[in-house]
Amino acid sequence: MSVTATRQSTFLRHALLILAAIIVLFPFLWITAAAFKTQIALLMGRVLFAPTLHNFADVLFSSTSDYVRNFTNSLIIGLASTALVLFVATLAAFSLNRMKWPNWVMHSMLGWAVIFHMVPPITLASAWYSMFRPIGLDNSYLGLILAHATLNLPMALWMMGVFVRDVPGELIEAARIAGAEIPTILARVIVPLVRPGLAATGILTFIFSWNEFPVSLTLTQRQTATVPVAIGKYAQENTIAFSGMAAASVLSMLPAVILLIIAQRFIVRGLTSGAVK
Amino acid sequence: MGRAAAASDRFWRNVTLAPALALFVLLTALPLIELALLSFHDVDWAGGVSTWRSTGISHYVALAGDNLFRVSILNTLLFSAIAVTGEMVLGFFLALLTTSVGRGRTIYRTVFLLPILMPGIIIGAIWKLMYSFDFGVINEIVTLVGLTPRDWLGDSHFALASIIVVDIWHWTPFCFLLMLASLESLPDDVFEAAEIDGASYWQILRAITLPLMLPSILVTFVFRLILAFKVFDEVYLLTGGGPGTSTEVISFTIYRRFFTEDRVGYGAAMSVTTFVLIAILIVAVIALTRRRASTS
């Protein structure tokens, strides 16, 4: 290939990739612009407009808006279910990969995780709802935290398994010969070495909990509603307040955007772990 | 190591697995068993007390003649097949393009990661505004290129296709990311050898890249397929199953039986049947692609 031909094809490749990037980014830019428009500017489809913070103020401070409470609910449920998932999955991944279980135990645990992953969450939501209602766990933080932890456990078990297997067996053996008990080995050897794995699994678990809709929809009411539930209901009931919806959408994307900026490495590692090996 | 150490090991082995096992048994196995039992019953609520009435297999018999259920299964299959195929093809070529450019790889990857991390319901909200007949940007673009603006979500000819477009936009980046990771992990020496032998770009792609990537292509495909069958958020927000039954998908049908119509027994039968259908389909897809892989 001649130099100009190579240069042309590089140019073409970048052109195609930039086009794809524009298509990916466009809806985000459009909704962000919409969030800063007045309702009238949005309805008139104005490209040039005087930006206003009115929509954000409305969503955050108006007495009819529950948004701050929804945001707090989502944070509490996301953080608590992530902590629970990390704790349970790290222990289980260690147990299954390092404690010489018979093969069938490991296969049935992981097999069950795969099967469970195939079930549409909405089918479990109904069963959870009828289980939780008699014991007062519906419309409570604890109920949704347990539900989200369960939904994310298969993925976490899978990912933490990959990371725990990467810990050299000699390190564990050496610690045992030095007389360390299992809890010490977990705390002093395993956890420090799988920290990147914990970060990757934790960030994804949090994001998935933050995004989860069908189960949150069925297990919460007004006081415990998460952000997706609030926006989903709002959008279904209101066919008028578009600019408010745009502002709420923009605010709801902030956690994922922040995590993407500060922890992209972990997110990529988490999403691709297992699929490549 | 003595007997005491072995006993202590067994103790810790059980203790470390117990929390995960407890969550699985209590929150997945038990509910699924209850769901299966429920599918043979009707539940009446009276004064805060529920009574189960046995209905035998009548829910399943009714299900066999339920047109809405059939339509929603077909819609879900159609949706999943078209959306996932589109995502895989686009994702694969985007990944190929990205590995072939030297500079800017990380920037492209960052941008493409964005949709994967966003809540489905927000994606739905954004696209609902963009699809709006009156002020949506889609119709502005359509008018700009000289076509007729349409009510994309309100017209039964376009509603399902419109949702498929959103899903492809949402999930192509996921396929891209996994394809990219797989491409980057391929051994360089095979490609160098092929280039020295004078193989063309397309020959290398067909004879080396694709076969080497097949395992990860399969994993990604099945993974996306499973997720696509569960589609709920976007449909809930964009069309609510309408107009008519044109975007009625299975998760949404089940949701309505349980939570708006309160027919839990029938909803349970629907859930169980759906689960069995999905399991059969996934096993069939895996078997089929494995066979193709071993014969080619």
TrEMBL record, chain A:
Gene3D superfamilies per the UniProt record, alphabetical: MetI-like
Membrane topology: Multi-pass membrane protein
GO cellular component terms, A-Z: plasma membrane
GO biological process, one term: transmembrane transport
InterPro entries with a match to the protein in the record: BP-dep_ABC_trans_perm (IPR050901), MetI-like (IPR000515), MetI-like_sf (IPR035906)
Keyword field contains Transmembrane helix: yes
Family that this chain belongs to: Belongs to the binding-protein-dependent transport system permease family.
Name the record gives this protein: Carbohydrate ABC transporter permease
TrEMBL record, chain B:
Any GO CC annotation of this UniProt entry: plasma membrane
ABC transmembrane type-1 domain span: 73-287
Gene3D superfamilies: MetI-like
Similarity annotation: Belongs to the binding-protein-dependent transport system permease family.
One Pfam family named in its UniProt record: BPD_transp_1
Source organism per UniProt: Pararhizobium mangrovi
Major location category of this protein: membrane
Residues passing through the membrane, by range: 12-33, 77-99, 111-130, 158-183, 204-227, 266-288
DNA repair recorded as keyword: no
Bilayer topology annotation: Multi-pass membrane protein
InterPro entries: ABC_transporter_permease, MetI-like, MetI-like_sf
Protein name: Sugar ABC transporter permease
UniProt subcellular location: Cell membrane
Record's keyword terms, sorted: Cell membrane, Membrane, Transmembrane, Transmembrane helix, Transport
GO BP, one annotated term: transmembrane transport
